[in-house]
Structure formats: C-alpha cells, structure tokens
Amino acid sequence: MLPTSTDNATSQGIHVTRSRPPPPTWKNLPNKGQLAILALSRFVDFFQMAALQTFMVHQLRSFDPDLTDVDISHQAGVLQGAFTAAQIITSILWGRAADQPMLGRKTVLNIGLVGTGIGCIGVGFSKSYGQAVFWRLMSGAINGTVGSARTMVAEITPKPWHPRAFLLLPAAFNVANVAGPILAGLFADPTVNLPKLFGPNSTFGGPDGVQWMREYPYAVANLMSTTLLFAEAILVHFGLQETLKGKKPLDISKFDPVALVRSAYESAQRMRNQGYRMLQETQREGLLSGDTRGSVEMDRLTASGEREAQRPVQRLAFRRIWTPNVLWTLLSIAIFDFHMGAFANLWILFLATPREFTGGDNSAREDTSLQARSMFKFSSGLGFPPPTIGFAMAIIGFIGVALQFLLYPWANGRFGLMRCFRGSLFLFPAAYYLAPYLALLPSTSPPPNPASGAIIWIGISFVLFLQVAARTFALPASIILLNNSSPHPSVLATIHGIGNACSATFRTIGPVLAGYWFGIWTERGIVGMAWWIVATLASVGCVASFKVRNGSGHEIFLPGEEGETKEGEAGGGSGDGR
C-alpha cells in the first residue's frame, strides 16, 4: 500500500501527499466501449418509437380510408399509448428479473431488443387496427430495456462520471428523434416515395412495382427498425459484459428434475426442523449442477481446520425498498413524465390548430386580421402543415443534442447535480405558460394561412429552448437521483423497473388528459387553458423536488454488511450534494 500521512511514512519522517484523482472529463470517461453499446441500445429503442410516430396516422388510414379525422386521432392515441401502457405492468417484473442471478441485466436487455424487433415486424405486416395494437402491446410488455440499460450504466461507471455517463441516454433520445422521422418518412410507402427504386417499372419492381410493398406499404419502415434492433441485440450478446454480481449461468444440460424434487423435499424438512432457515445461493447452484451435497456443506476451511462460513449474496426484501427518498423521487419523476408527455401532444395539436379556430360548423370569418378577445381568451393555433410541423419538431432534437454535450457537463460541474435539477424544473412552467401566446405574435402571412415570419420562428425557438434546456438538465438528473435513491445494490434494477413503470404510467396519462383539455377549452375559446393547467402541475413538481435528495445507493445495510458503512458513506451520490 502506498504510504500516506497516517501510514508508516510518518514514522520514517517522510511526509507524503496523496495526489487527488483527476477531474472527470469525457476524455478519461471509463468503459467507453460498454457505454457506447448501452447508448446504442437506447438509440434503437427510441428510434422505433420515433419512426412509428412519423407514419402512424397514414398507416391507420390505410386500414380503413373511410375513417374520420376524429377516429384516426383516437386510434393514434391508443396505438401510441399501447406500448407504454404495457410497460406499466411489466417494468417492475423485468426489473426484478434483471436482479436475479439466473437472468441478469444483459439477458433482460437482449430479450427486450429481440422482442421489440419482432413486434415491429408484426406492426409492419398488420392488416387492421386491432392487429397493430396487439403487436404494440406485446412489444411494450416484453421491453425491459430501460431499467436494464440504466442499471448497467450505473454499475460500470464510477460515481464521479455518472453525470456524463447518464447523459448518453437522453442524448440517444435526441439523436433518434432526428434520425427516426427522417428515415421512416423516406421508407414509408416506398412504391410512392421511392418510385424509381420500388415503383412500377423501377429498378426492383415489375410492371406494378414491388408487390409486397404495395400490399404492406409501411412494412419497410418497420423492418428498418427491426434490423437496427436485431443488430444491436447481436452487439449486446457478443460485446456487452454482465454487471450483476453473483450472476450464475443457467446450464439446462445439467438440470436434474429428480434432484430438484429430492432437494425441495429436504429443504422443506430442514426449514421445519431448523426454524425455517433459508438456504443460500450455493444451494441454487447445486440444484443445476447435480451436486446437492456441495450446496449444503461448506468445504472451505480456515488455517486452523475449522469450517469457514461463506457470506452469501444478500438481497433486500421488496417491502423494504419503499424509503421516503424513493417515494419522493418517484413523485418527482411522475410529475416530470406527466408534463413531458402532455407537452409532446399539446405541441403537435397547437402547431396544427387553425389560426382562427371557430369550431363546429361556423364558417371562416371574412376579416383576415387575428384579434385576441383578451389576454387570456383566444382560440388560435399556428396552422402549420405537416412538413412545417416536422421541421418544428426537429428543432427539439438539434437543440437537445447541442445543450447536452456543450452546456450540461459544465453547468453540472459548476453548480452541482441538485442545483441544476431543481433550477431546471422552473423553466418548464415558464415554457408552458408562454407557449400559447405564440399564436398572437405578428405574422407575415394573414390568417387562415399558416403563421410565418422571423418573429414567429424566434418565438418558437425561444419556447423550445426553455423546454429543451429544462429537459436537458432534468432528465439525466432524474435518472441519477433514481439510481442513487436505491436503498441497496441488490435491488438497483428493481428500482429502475419501478421508475420505468411510473414513467410509463404518467407518459400514457399525460397525452390523453392534455388532448382532452386542449379540445374542450379550445372549443370554449381559451386555447391556452390546457397549457396553463400543465404549467401549474409542472410548478408542483418544482416544489416536490426540494424533498428529493441525492442518496448513496446503499442506505440499508443487511447483516454482515456493517463493515461497508464507511465505504458507502464515502461513496455518496453522484456528483455532489449541491
């Protein structure tokens, strides 16, 4: 051991100053290759969701061209929410599975990637709305990638680098939000959008084009997502290392059902005779290897010949994970995901709403001036067509990538995790309160034409800057705080599974309620009311954040772990406690 001021260097009259570790930077970030694989797993998952949103309405209309716009909007909401709704139920189960030695994080991650890829195939070749919803439900139910990826990032990265490592996951989200819609839009209905390649008398098509692409016009776009998911699954299988301590390979070839029954009977007898003393991990290993005796008898001896007890891998009971910090963190995440989902729906609705929404069967007014009845009572949107909406949505991704890599690391190091997290939350209400007033900005084109001009786009950029800047700091911070709120390392994946279930729940509820509020209040002539309700709820999240603290990730010590107390306290949370 190197000498320190409290070691033998003092007795020798030598004063040795221990050098401080280098500050965390992108250059000295450890395990870059493993983090890249995990970031790619989140990219392909976000990609398939962003791609589906691009052509979802058109695919639903292809199922039944006679459906009204109201019916299409309802079906689109259900199809989009089916994925996250299924995750509400299964996220905790996948989190528990990822904590089990027989499965582990890597296996759960790969199951999610492959299963979601199969679900994309099903959606691409669906012939009805019901089939598409079924495959999205199946994809969401089998997708446990979020909790596993976050857990593995936490376990392979030393805590000083957590702010940078966890930044890669939302960065993957922003990149996918740019690449997904562009590529999916290009390959949706390829016989129409790429006629020289797949249309009639084209390079790959016959007189009528590629027949299966004509019959399933959105299969190619879905197959593109499947290809990326399967390729990432192969990369995870061969390139990603398992991070679960005590992971045991499941060797089916050595499974002995007779030994299993016999051992189960012997276990029941021992529990009855010895006060229900539970056998440890070594017993489970013996059941699969056929060596049941070795699982009961300790064959490790000390130097004196006495039997040395092996300390088992201990796991915290599920009922003990609900600490106050876990609950406050989950509440903060619930509010955050609610208004984030609500914003995504409100933003698209607001951009597409006519500049003078009259509702019902009222004809358009003859005057071309846009007049607000009062500062709060007006019912106008921006009237953007789909291409302009796509461009406005792409701004979110571009701003997000720039802020995450340029501003976030500096601000997090300068002000600390907690200050950045709490301060960023106040930007959300500001963005939501201001958003509806974009409809009142001067435009170079009169209504009912789409709003245009430099002032309009400066206003849009300013509102998006507030929202994206807040998300840039809040999203990675919420992941880190959830990770550090775990009361024991043995339930880390379970905590992330619960967090993902909470997130999925409120990301499903948020868009539904926001769309309902937007519809009823726009009919009443107050287009901003839905925005202001969401802003008020976001303000509640600002207050709740002051109850959240940056934990250590190991606050409950099981018997035999008391010696790790000092180490756990020294580790602290990611970053600092500011």
UniProtKB/TrEMBL annotation:
Q: Which residues form a coiled coil?
A: none
The UniProt entry lists membrane topology as: Multi-pass membrane protein
Compartments annotated for it: namely: Membrane
Keywords of the record, alphabetical order, are: Membrane, Transmembrane, Transmembrane helix, Transport
- Composition bias (Polar residues) maps to 1-14
Q: What is its main location?
A: membrane
Q: Which residue ranges does UniProt annotate as crossing the membrane?
A: 35-56, 76-95, 107-126, 132-153, 165-188, 216-240, 326-350, 389-408, 420-439, 451-470
State the InterPro entries in the record. Answer: MFS (IPR011701), MFS_dom (IPR020846), MFS_trans_sf (IPR036259), Tet-R_TetA/multi-R_MdtG-like (IPR001958)
A single Gene Ontology CC annotation of this entry is:
membrane
**A Gene Ontology molecular-function term?**
transmembrane transporter activity
Q: Which SUPFAM superfamilies match?
A: MFS general substrate transporter
Query: Could you tell me which residues belong to the region Disordered?
Result: 1-27, 557-578
Q: Which residues belong to any copy of the Major facilitator superfamily (MFS) profile domain?
A: 34-553
Q: What is this protein's record name? A: Major facilitator superfamily (MFS) profile domain-containing protein
